Amino acid sequence: MTTQTQIPILDLSPEIAELRPEILAAIGRVLDRTDFIMGEDVHAFEQEVATYLGVKHAIGVNSGTDALVIALRALNIGPGDEVITTPFTFFATAESISMVGATPVFVDIDPTTMNIDPDLIEAAITPRTRAIMPVHLYGNPTDMTRIQAVAQQHGLRVIEDCAQSFGARWNGQHTGTIGDIGAYSFFPSKNLGAYGDGGLIATNDDTLADTARMLRVHGSRKKYHNETVGYNSRLDTIQAAILRVKLPHIERWNTHRRAVAQAYNDALQNVPGIVTPTITDGHVFHQYTIRVQNGRRDALQQHLAAHGIGTMVYYPIPQDQLPIYKGQYPTYPHSAQAAQEALSLPMGHVMDTTLIDHVSRSVQNYVR
Length: 368
Ligand SMILES: *Cc1c(COP(=O)(O)O)cnc(C)c1O
Description:
By secondary structure, the protein is an alpha/beta fold. Helix content is about 40%, strand content about 15%.
């Protein structure tokens, strides 16, 4: 047996190798100050990220899931309310809606973008609909012009799930700053990842920002003056310190991700049975996801695994088919098909072209 390269779907070690001294110094400064909860770096990061995103308020929280939940609570969405979202996403999207006692209403995806199809939203609106929660899946911005148009016409609020789209832009504007609230995740594998859990709420609305800040600290604006049942959901100071080291690199990293996607597309776009993603403006390629047609997705995944190449299926089960929701929804044909065909290849913001060539050749060799 020859030793073969192991290529994980995501390798964080090159980034850590580059930034380790700065990261350790940043953590050291937190240790010196011992301001572990809501410390100096949290406030500084909130300001820096607000400036980067071009938004009035950035509020650090404990995770992307909490950002979604607190966003819904800030909009006073709860039992009896419906929120329209995509079935083709990570569970946290729908889970956040269920967590506040509201009902997720799914609308099928556009098979080209893999995002919620704005043309189908209107038909799903009922008197109970309060909000639309688009997800910028794989880092590909949803058509926010059309989402905002439908929302405004029907008096709905918009919460953008930006867990996969930090740095992505729609018409030059950052995702998460176009609707009423943006919710971001700093899970380590996301485009801007912490070295633990973390999340963020972005909004231009002063009242929503004030409510979100109150909710993240046990529903209190003033210590020991709790107004409502809130959360213990703060961004850790150590994670904020790490994120401050990483934020200045995000534009370069996202540019690299687009170049990796372009290199994959160049190698794979004429391979029969493979559909490559469109490189739209502002797409930040959290994942590089191909469609494998003719029922060959799982076999290709196994072939690549046998050649040391890690891939993932995001997502194998649409939300409406999960045990928690099964039987409560019709099926959504485009989401169902995407769950059968989607395959995400190794992607990262520090990725060598030789790795891209190796992965592309392995895909070509199998499919041909
Ligand atoms: C990762 C993710 C979340 C949740 O973020 P966490 O920080 O892990 O809680 C929500 N929605 C989507 C689409 C995600 O990919």
